[in-house]
Amino acid sequence: MTAVTTLGLAAVSGWFASERWIFSKYRGRKWLMDILLERIERTWDLPGFSHARKAWQKTSLSLRGCARLLGRWRSWIMCNDWESSLSDDGKDLEAGGLPWVAGAGEKAETSDTGRTRRKQALLSAMKTIHLQSTIIAPFITPGKKRVETTGADPGDIDSGKLVAEPVRAERSRLSLMKRKLGVLELTGDFEAHQALVRDAQFSEDGKFLITSSWDGTSIIWQTHPEHNLLSMYRVLVHPKSYVGQTVWSPDSTMLLTKHVRSVKLWTQHGVCHKTIDRQTNIRRVAWLPDGKAFLSVEENTVFRLDLLGKELDSYDFGMTTLHDAAVTTDGSRVWAVGVLSESPSKLHPSKSPVEKRLIVYNMQTKCIEYQIPILDDVRHVSISRKARLGRNGLLALISYEIQPPQLWKLYRVSDERNASASITRVRLLHTYLPRQTGVEFAGPGYFGGKDDELVLCASKGRDIHVWDRESGIYLRHIPAAGRSSDLMCMTWNPASENPFMFATGSHDGAVQLWSLSPTREVQEPSVMADG
């Protein structure tokens, strides 16, 4: 007994040690079971094992064929015996007579009563079918054999065609997407700022583009998608602090600029409407879908503020220090990313890295509905406002420090504790991998194209990578030709008139425009200061 216990303990210890070694070697990308399965597959591929496996497969096929033949032969013999046993009893059926059925007052036969009754019932059924076919047959006109359909035209029924139609449509869509991306070219390169461009964003209607730099200025560009025309419209001056983020309102009439400890509200014409001061550092800001309030992400708390700076509500995320947050399209939940700064007992990690988390927070119940620990350094999250996965599905793009972006699905399920309520769950759909190996990404990923059908992300090599959002297929690699500085930000024009236009901001302060045709010269802007 002691030997068995010792052997089991040694096996478990060896398994855990192997798991630890595999985790360190592959950096969490593979587990011990994956390695064992790979080794088994390689072993089966060896010459001796492969020949033995092929021989066993051939033997199995032969045995199955013999079994099928024996089954058919047995069925044929049983049918012949049954027909021969019915031949004598069926003479009255051929002569037009009816089988005898015992009356209620008569005594049944004592020998083979059950078998006789079964034969009589079968003969009666055969006679009924024979009579019905004799009566109905003259009224049936010959025609084509009926084919079971699924709502389609019988003349078009072709299983191969039905299966191939969705595949053909998907290939056509991807081919058209590649052709459109192939004609994108650099149509404008503007030395707009004196320092790195920290953020850039097109307005929802596609008429304006704003770029913010660490030189203390933000530039509002006016776009004309029908002519691919770009011109400077206003310059916003921030003499006291630089801008870390710029966000257009859902109706494109207002603009938020995030500073270290303040948020400024601007009109689309460059007039400063309100300056909202905060007591702590602001990580990110996000508009609510109605455009009447916004969220301010500050350390481990998200504050809900109106356009005058009044605190409407606050949402505590416990021990998690937030990096970014986005609001769902219905305004009921916050999708946040951050790190666990300390444990509930106030303990801090000494050697191990901090735990990163993806969190879904319900603003109505003020509680965390769902959270997932992850390995990579998560930085940004954005929710698609155009793409939908049914009535209860949303898409979120998660970006990391140097890893490729990932697409996650947010969906609702019924709450087991309350049948009338629903809770949110998340599931990973795609990890957008480049064709080259060893690519390190810089900055967040972005949705692009019509209905957010594309995903874009820049690498540290100054290249731009483009994927199809739905399938995860790599569509285009835009090389770093003409760029002498690293890309800091990127934004796609969501206007439906010209869905293939995007802008980038560089470390040297340049703003570049990519579109389908050349743009016109940049007009000199008028200068506006803080109000």
TrEMBL record:
Keywords: Repeat, WD repeat
Membrane-crossing segments per the record: none
Family annotation (InterPro entries): WD40/YVTN_repeat-like_dom_sf, WD40_repeat_dom_sf, WD40_rpt, WD_repeat-ST_regulator
Record flagged with keyword Repeat: yes
Claim: Cell division is one of the keywords in the record: no
Coiled coil, from the record: none
Domain of life: Eukaryota
Protein name per the record: WD40 repeat-like protein
Biological classification of the source: Eukaryota, Fungi, Dikarya, Basidiomycota, Agaricomycotina
